[in-house]
Amino acid sequence: MTEQLRSLSQSSLQDYNDCPRRFELRYIQHLAYPAVESEPALENEKHQQEGEYFHRLVQQHLIGIPAEQVGKLAKTDNLQRWWENYVNAKDLSGFKNLTGLHAEVTLSAPLGKFRLVAKYDLIAIGENKATIYDWKTYRKRPKNEWLHIRWQTRVYRALLVQAGAHLNGAKPFTPEQIEMVYWFADFPTEPAHFPYKADQYKRDWDALTTLAEEITSASHFPKTDDVSKCSYCPYRSYCDRGIRAGDAADAELETAAEELFDINFEQIGEIAF
């Protein structure tokens, strides 16, 4: 059944980790979402759209459009606040002077019978260092301990080691050269920093390899035993796990919508088979 599944991402791996059944319904069966993820639905949808638009604003700024010009496009209260926080953030002043900025870049590397794919908000290359920046518009500031174990943190750093050489003059980055930073638009003075080490990289890549092998050989995708996660799952009606959706702010920390983008593997930095 997994033969049609070509790639894995941090979102699909997180879904598999949280609930194999959700992974099966979303990425193998490609079922439509029968239920909203959170309440109130319209408010949450608007917040998600604003978050996506904020990412576009930052991207436009990073490719050279003046901040004053980009800021004119921030037309909602949330966007205006987030944009002002971004422009004035002291924690972001370091990369703004670098020339090696790679915004919205996608990397890929073989992982078992799959390709591991990740789309980065920003990879900032400095002297002997690569910093991954990820913009978050969460209503709540998550704990660093929670972020540390999420597959996004593990995948993004490990994949940059595996597939980032073309960003570094054809020389692969060592784990110690890599740091991941989550920057929260509503908590601009509280970024989360996650440096990397060789032993962490080995642990992560071994875990990713094992997970890919497990998914390849899986014939059954059981439901999670943690029913609290079902409140934020759009497939809960398939599993008779309730009707009412969870709170929007909490849902942000439990769900991550898979960003849909067309993958042109000829244009993605990768390692050879």
Order of helices and strands: EHHEHHHEEEHHEEHEH
Query: What count of domains describes the coordinates?
Result: 1
Strand content: 15-25%
What is the average of the pLDDT values? 86
**Which structural class fits the helix and strand makeup?**
alpha/beta
DSSP strand tally = 8
Question: What characteristic shape results from the CA principal axes?
Answer: globular
CATH class: Alpha Beta
Tell me about the largest β-sheet. 6 strands, mixed
Helical amount among residues, as a percent range?
25-40%
Gyration radius from CA atoms, angstroms:
19 Å
How far the N terminus sits from the C terminus, by CA atoms, comes to 23 Å
Q: From the 3D coordinates, which CATH architecture would you assign?
A: Alpha-Beta Complex
Annotated CATH topology? Lambda Exonuclease, Chain A
Tally of contiguous helical segments? 9
Uncertain residue segments: 256-273
